[in-house]
Write a structure and sequence with these properties.
eight-stranded antiparallel β-barrel; rod-shaped; alpha+beta
């Protein structure tokens, strides 16, 4: 009789322990699936537009000979820095239509030392943008790269050629903030 009771208790203990392990495994598996299924919030280009925090985008150094092109997107405009002594402020449109883009409007205010504008090259063969034209679109490739699509692509290439630099790059890369 004691053997039957002991055997029954051992079997109950065995199955109850196995049940707890199964629940632990099941809970762990459910947590892993939840993590894997959880939508990772991908960043949008609008996340990099701020009036309080500067997200600086630049070109790869080998793409540039002399300028240090940097762009910071604020809520209503982009600050386009050709070097530390030349800033242009362009109005932007930020919209969401299935894709997230920033549109740069060709209307600018400049703050440069030397005052000569690099955009007034008189010998350009291609049609330059006029005030109010949609000059380009910035689209986020990933959290650290932006692709730039120019609506005046031939003119942008020509200005790059005239200045012997990449002031209108095809890609911008997120940089660590600098002073």
């Amino acid at each position: 009789m004691y053997k039957k009771i002991l055997l029954t208790l051992l079997l109950l203990l065995f199955f109850s322990c196995k049940n707890k392990d199964d629940h632990k495994k099941s809970d762990l598996k459910m947590k892993e699936e939840a993590i894997n299924k959880k939508d990772v919030k991908s960043r949008k280009i609008g996340d990099f537009m701020s009036d309080t925090e500067d997200f600086t985008w630049g070109i790869k150094q080998e793409d540039s000979l002399s300028s240090d092109v940097k762009i910071v997107f604020q809520k209503e405009f982009a600050v386009y820095e050709f070097n530390r002594q030349c800033l242009y402020y362009f109005f932007t449109n930020h919209y969401y239509t299935g894709t997230d883009k920033i549109e740069l409007i060709w209307s600018y205010k400049k703050d440069c030392l030397p005052e000569k504008s690099i955009f007034t090259a008189s010998n350009t063969k291609n049609k330059p943008p006029k005030a109010g034209d949609k000059f380009c679109e910035y689209e986020l490739v990933n959290d650290s790269v932006i692709h730039v699509k120019y609506n005046f692509e031939e003119w942008a290439k020509e200005i790059n050629s005239i200045t012997r630099d990449s002031i209108f790059p095809k890609y911008l890369y997120l940089e660590k903030n600098r002073k």
